[in-house]
Structure prediction request, 542 residues.
Amino acid sequence: MCSESTMLRRWLLALVARVGVIALVVCCCLSLLYLLACKPPSSYSHEQAQVWAGGATSKEGYLALLQESEDTHRHYINSLSKQIAQLKEALQMRTQQLQESLEKARAKGVLPMGLEGLRRPQTHTDLQEFFKAQLSRAEVQSGEKLPSEYAVIPFESFTLHRVYQLEMGLTRHPEERPVRKDRRDELTGTLEIALQVLNGPRRHGERRRRSYSPSDFIEGLTRTERDKGTVYELMFKGEGPQDFRQLVFFRPFGPVVRVKNERVDTRHMLINIIVPLSRRADTFRQFINNFRKVCIQQEGKTHLTVVYFGRDQIEEVKAIMDQTSRETQFRNFTLIQLNEEFSRGRGLEVGARAWRRSHNVLLFFCDVDIHFTLDFLTSCRLNAEPGKKVFYPVLFSQYNPSLIDNNQSPFPSIQQQLVIMKDAGFWRDFGFGMTCQYRSDFINIGGFDRNTKGWGLEDVHLYRKYLHSKLMVIRSPSRSLFHLWHEKQCADELQPDKYKMCMQTKAMSEASHGHLGELFFTQEIQEHLERQKLLNDSSHLR
Ligand SMILES: *[C@@H]1O[C@H](CO)[C@@H](O)[C@H](O)[C@H]1NC(C)=O
Ligand SMILES: *[C@@H]1O[C@H](CO)[C@@H](O)[C@H](O)[C@H]1NC(C)=O
Prediction:
């Protein structure tokens, strides 16, 4: 029995085992078949797989996806951290090398001045401190006392495509495209930064703004102080016709630093234009024509003060002013008559002090043979600030127009003369007569010296007083201020050295080097032409 039951048990076990094996094999076969038949094609795109996975078991699918992208990010971060670490290491190595060579230089006593600060290991904040120090040393936010007019670093002015420069030598031009690529990149780069600032996120509480584009850029001023850095003052059109944006940047031989971003509303900045005058009624008529066009028809925020010396032609001048007043309803004229010998400084002084209205006023000292445009009035307003800045533009002096066009008649109109070109004129960088400054500054600095007599010298004295003061002197070429040519008389009574200087100025104001050369070599040129003609004729005969 016992053996029978064990046998049965064994048989049963064997059966179960056999059935199990068969079931297993069948299972395997089935799943193999299933895999072969229903496996998704291998070209399934990742995206479809995602959808598919999501569709089948959405929660798990998404979790898996999340996990996957998290992993990718972790990898990315790891690799970036590794790169940063490598860069840091390289930087440290370089710094060490630099320090070592600086130490060596110091030991030899040849360390360049100003580099002492670099001996310490530099950190980012140190550099920022250094840049800030450079900015505060540079003449950007406040004026600096200068010994003389030769210490002034003038600005260059620039527009989108042009640079207006004073330093030309004999070959460069008063206005040029920036030829060098680094110069071009520097200017456009700064402009781009300015546009980013203007279009950047609004500051708290600011009104809605429009977006700014390069075409809103009016003009920039730039200059480099060799031991501090470069400053840029950029002027953009603002919200309205008399509204402007002024941005100031500083580049301390490092990245550009923003110094100022201000809205300037010029609507209430009245300009009192002061013109000292004696005789020259015809030139005055020409001046009033321009004044009418620029100040009365386009502007409406000006006053004209004429200080007239003597009695000759005064009736004509009065008549011109009365007529203009009648025809335009413009009432902001003042005519002051002095029975004295003409003195420009005295005239400006009297004109400036005559302003009786309570508030301060912006003065523009002007001559009767000066031609200015609407843009000039704007730059006058933007470059002068009471107690802070006075504007000393360098004007463009026109050559004798009858020489420019090689005896081409008729005489070119004034509009045709107003071009900034090498053969048309030059930057009168030795003149300090035209200036924009607030009356308060003029009074505080003591006005013109009573003792300096004659033409021209009193300007330089006033200019020097501003240089010695804490006020900032903005000296830059102005593309909207012209000195029109007129014949220069060198008086017989002048001392020989003064007479010589007068003749030199006369020559300089008459024509360009090239045109004067044509005059000088007239005979040679004539002979050349005649020889050519002969040659032509003889070749014709053959
Ligand atoms: C005339 O001068 C006054 C200030 O004295 C000024 O408010 C006004 O705008 C000026 N008018 C014109 C047309 O310039
Ligand atoms: C000589 O002839 C050439 C062309 O044949 C002409 O361009 C040139 O002006 C002539 N020169 C003179 C002096 O006539």
